[in-house]
Amino acid sequence: MRNSVCPSGEVLTSDTSARSADMSDITINVCPLDFRAAPTNNQRKMTLKQNKKAGFAEKDQGTKKRGSPDLCNVAMATSSSSSHLTVNSAAAPGEPREAPATNIPQRKRNIAATSAGTAPAAPTKYLALDCEMVGAGPKGSINQLARCSIVSYDGDVVYDKFIRPALPVTDYRTRWSGIRHRDLVRATPYAEARKEILRLLGGKVVVGHAIHNDLKVLSYGHPTALIRDTSRIPLLNRKAGFPEKECVSLKRLTKALLDRDIQVSRRGHSSVEDAKATMELYKMVEVEWERQLATKERQTERLLHCK
User: Fold this and answer.
1) What is the per-residue DSSP string for 129-165?
2) How do beta strands 205-208 and 227-229 pair?
């Protein structure tokens, strides 16, 4: 049997043998007290008198500091304090277990988000793509990807790498591609580069000029609704003064609408230069073109709904 004294003078008795059998029903309130040797009955009586005179300040042979609460005060203080630590053991059968009021779930989510190690999102919703190709096979008739450039909506370079084709190169097409043998010696292998490129393009609106050629050499089919091909925009041809149904080259459109010369270097074409020009052309008609596409989409939905 063990006795403990409250400030009111009431003696609390607890049976230690029974306590071990009922530990599953106990809620333990832990507080930073310094318990050492258990006081005797005489010491408890003296402490009770001193507490009443000195505001419950205890002087039990250095076992507690002045102003430290006794066991009853600890129980009352910790039940109303938000800074205490509560250890809930298993609840009795049929009784709900009380969960501690903490913000651990939110903290766990924050830690998980930080430690996930996910790659940062792509720079913009819109990306412009342009590829340079070399030839493989007889007379270089098989197109092979040798360089790929991707720029953001604002014209920043997102990706630009020389790529080593899967097949041996038989025609570098340097006059147009700008690719030379030395560019491909330490280039990124095609399989690796393709994964990098498709990871960037996924879920994005991809802008390109005759972009079907670029997607074909990547062996990739991008969703049609997310493709903007500047070689097939009547609005651009109309602005530039060309027939709406004519497939005008990127070089001619850029000169007519942006008053800029591209693809004039003796070193060959630059896929970065072409991708930037493509994005600028798209932005010239973006608002009107997107409005037309949205109208067509609504009309298609109505027809499907009627069927």
Assistant:
1) EEEEEEEESGGG-EEEEEEEEEEETTS-EEEEEEEE-
2) parallel
Tens digits of pLDDT across the chain (307 residues): 445 444 444 544 444 444 444 444 444 444 444 444 556 667 777 767 676 665 544 444 444 444 444 444 433 444 444 333 333 333 444 444 444 344 433 333 333 333 333 333 334 699 999 999 999 999 999 999 999 999 999 999 999 999 999 999 999 999 999 999 999 999 999 999 999 999 999 999 999 999 999 999 999 999 999 999 999 999 999 999 999 999 999 999 999 999 999 999 888 889 999 999 999 999 999 999 999 999 988 888 888 877 6
| Consecutive H or E run containing 196 | helix 190-201
| Tokens (6 digits) for 63 | 């076992």
Q: 77-88: buried (b, 16+ CB within 10 Å) or exposed (e) per residue? A: ebeeeeeeeeee
Cα angle 225, 226, 232; round to 5? 80
With 0-12 / 13-18 / 19 or more C-beta atoms within 10 angstroms meaning exposed / middle / buried, residue 40 is exposed
Alpha-carbon distance 199 to 30, whole Å?
52
